[in-house]
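Mods, move this if it's the wrong board.
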Amino acid sequence: MIYDVSALPYKKEHIKQACLLWMQNNKGTEMAEGWVSLFPILSRFQEGVGPKPAGTDYLSINSYKESMEKTQDLGEPWREISNKVDHEYIELYDLAHKILD
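Not the wrong board. Structure tokens:
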């Protein structure tokens, strides 16, 4: 699911900077290991999604056919946002690795 940035308690950039600072300060600790997976989740918050999350709740789908149908129903604007999420996810994942490795 992709959520609107307005669902975040603070500006996305402030959260990103706070996370980066935390990772830098906790590098090499056991707690920091999970941040490589956790930090990129921030990419799931994007501008223009609106009050209702975009995407498909795959946990509620019972078959591959149903999954494909629901994905097709989302339309082009969702695909653009989804592509942006994918790109940003990789960027944040690589950034976390760079800091924590």
